[in-house]
Amino acid sequence: MKRAQIGVIGYNSGSLPIKSKTLDLAYEVGGIIAKKNAILVCGGLGGVMEYSCKGAKDNNGFTIGIVPQEDYSSANQYCDAVICTGIGLSRDFIVAYSSDGLISVGGGVGTLIELCVGYIVKKPMVSISDSGGISDDYGGKYLDERKRILIEKIKSPLEAVEYILKKNGLQ
Amino acid sequence: MKRAQIGVIGYNSGSLPIKSKTLDLAYEVGGIIAKKNAILVCGGLGGVMEYSCKGAKDNNGFTIGIVPQEDYSSANQYCDAVICTGIGLSRDFIVAYSSDGLISVGGGVGTLIELCVGYIVKKPMVSISDSGGISDDYGGKYLDERKRILIEKIKSPLEAVEYILKKNGLQ
Amino acid sequence: MKRAQIGVIGYNSGSLPIKSKTLDLAYEVGGIIAKKNAILVCGGLGGVMEYSCKGAKDNNGFTIGIVPQEDYSSANQYCDAVICTGIGLSRDFIVAYSSDGLISVGGGVGTLIELCVGYIVKKPMVSISDSGGISDDYGGKYLDERKRILIEKIKSPLEAVEYILKKNGLQ
Amino acid sequence: MKRAQIGVIGYNSGSLPIKSKTLDLAYEVGGIIAKKNAILVCGGLGGVMEYSCKGAKDNNGFTIGIVPQEDYSSANQYCDAVICTGIGLSRDFIVAYSSDGLISVGGGVGTLIELCVGYIVKKPMVSISDSGGISDDYGGKYLDERKRILIEKIKSPLEAVEYILKKNGLQ
């Protein structure tokens, strides 16, 4: 039977420098997902994706990276399994669809796309407060005038993970 | 040789009622794209997509609808060609990639996804002023802190189309 | 209203040398599609795709290339419109879904994938006799034991196009 | 670090009745993948996919189902993780790309597509002898005239799994 799958979304490495506080938050979120025995799902690359995977692995969790490429060479080293989509950045849809809920930590426009997809299919979504970028811009907000589902703004990684689990009736 | 391809994005029919002013703007944008001899690209469904296609057809233009489904039965009747993607809403990426520039008229979260994709690959983008929804929310703004490319806010459909053509060196 | 869309599939340029007879057949198929006022749909690249597009353009037809890439720089110069999917080779599904019928001219394993997709959704399919590769291997056959739809084997490009149109009630 | 990922492909339930011998082989393949500590990757649905997942779970393995749908409700009950692609049957590309090698057990045209994708990117591929359908038709053959990589024909599920591992330098 499918285990709980929690998506962590946020900055990739490489474009803007990412604050160490943001990466620490990503690491912490990953660790809690592992402790709660949920599978961590992410886009499989660097930055927030890598740090959250590392956090999960340091806590004996299981991690899945869903990468844009046809092969797994771009995946970060903390992915237990790599899904090689070969569909480029439109794999953002698959990250959101494959998560029982999304936790955003910082992030740019790719993170915004994942939140939009989560909004369309009404996934529970949390942005971590003061993690920067898109997460700070959209926490506590609806993504369009239909107000389908709110992006919750939560400071504590533990409470963020528990929020997703509760919304799925798992805690 | 490829002709100019201009994407029109905005509200689909069916969820929220769309103001007649917004649909009139969509119709007008479609007509101007046709008069400029560019191909109109869109998501192929109802609302802004349908009205812009109708505007293009009433002015002897050519229209392509890129639909989520595997078959063309959901396409609006003003599409000359229908691209049946079978990949669901992630076809939003293909709409943006396949356009030399995007013009948004109103719109919800799907429109926001298309703008995000355009932003990633730096397509010229225009939101029509006072057309509602996402277009009003994001006109004149950048989609994340990297400030890759601005979404221009333009009132006149004629100037919007000319802006896209100029940015492509076509006028 | 959607015009008839006929897909031409077969060898890409670049891997194996393609016989001039095969390219001549592709050119001829493209010309007839144009004369019948149908839109030519293809994968947008070289080889059979390019020659069929050239045949259509020399006969005042309209051509659409559905390419794997995010941008149109790889498309052959005879495409009027380019659909930039950004989903890599899985765009083969879109080529098949977007065609009212498929005509194969030679071809390798990519062509076989397109025939398989056509077979799943029961598109009329024709392989041109003596055009080489996959077309010769699979003409007159079913693709699996369910015998959903036969790949017709037809020698004449004219009759091949007419077969697709007839099966769609268009001639 | 990514664990070994072995793809099992073959008949879905529902169209043709599947011989119990074929399902037994699928179950056995799944069990061996688990014993070898590799992750089982598949299309997540019924038939061969379900039996191989059950085999893996009965041997304490880990299973990933990559389904066509946007949600996981169609996945078989033996998937530990479900990747919800939302891209329909073109998810066949992702199954093949995400596997370090493919083992086919029976199968129809969908299985043939997965073998074609494996052939393009030169994945080690094995068809289990006497498992029916596509596996019997294509075992021991190349998929086109370029002869990129042979589909090995192997009778024993144990040897099939060991073949894939060896080709990846893992045994």
From TrEMBL, chains A, B, C, D:
Highest rank taxon of the organism: Archaea
InterPro entries listed in its UniProt record: CHP00725, LDcluster4, LOG_family_nucleotidases
A GO term from the CC aspect: cytosol
NCBIfam families, sorted: TIGR00725 family protein (TIGR00725)
Stated name of the protein: TIGR00725 family protein
Origin organism lineage: Archaea, Nitrososphaerota, Nitrososphaeria, Nitrososphaerales, Nitrososphaeraceae
